[in-house]
Design brief:
By secondary structure, the protein is mostly beta strands. It has one helix spanning 77-83; strands at residues 6-9, 12-13, 16-17, 28-31, 38-42, 48-51, 91-96, 99-103, 114-116, 120-124, 131-132, 154-157, 164-167, 180-183, 195-200, 217-224, 230-233, 240-242, 247-250, 255-264, 267-272.
Amino acid sequence: MPNTYIKRNNTLTNSNPTAPPSLEYGELAMNYKSGYERLFAKNDAGTIFAFNDWTKIFNKPTTLTGYGITDAQPINTDLTAIGSLSGTSGFLTKTAANTWALDTSTYLKANQTITLSGAVTGSGSTAIVTSYAETVPTNKGGTGLTNIGTAGQVLQVNSGGTGLEWGTVSGSGDDRNKGVNNVTTLASLPISKRLIYATVTAATSISLSAAMEIGDELHIIVYNSSYSTRTQALPNSGSFISLSGTSISLPSRGRVEINILCYATNSYIIRAL
């Protein structure tokens, strides 16, 4: 029968504590060398085992392979960085090599209702049915007007340069060379047509209803329907230069022709033909 007491030893072999060489099957032995304390036992196969606190075990492996573990996740710098994150929620975001952070931003997870206001209105979550306001301002691509004007008008910038308006073109063009304006006085002559037929009974001061464009002209046929000769003054100052003196005679029941040519801004030449 083996002894039942614990044998003692305090020897080292190659700086390692050893069991007494006389240790028999089933016996326990203790090496009590300071700093190397270890408990030994010998099984029935003659193998001696050491039992120690983990801190007292020497030459411990430093790798998974050293421990004989083959089915574990090897060390990884990305996993190490993720494992060191603090926080209870967020999306993992890789910000650099082997560097991770928790993104705690709020993101949409479902359809949201969107409402449009202003020139275009509408609302919806998966689709928006839009409608246009009655008046779309110019800064939104509209005209800022509530109507389409009248026949013959065109869209133009107002005189103040602050918006759009409907107006009548008074400059030159093919339509200006067609037709005639019939008047009964030489005052405030219309400029929308090149030809004017004036039926008068008395002389009047010649003037224009609006400024003409450079290069435009008026051809005026003046018919004196009275039974007396009339003296018609021609403007020769200010915006006008007369090439036919200061006046012409309108014969009784007769006709004369007058031409007005715009040669510069607000500058006109007038002559009798």
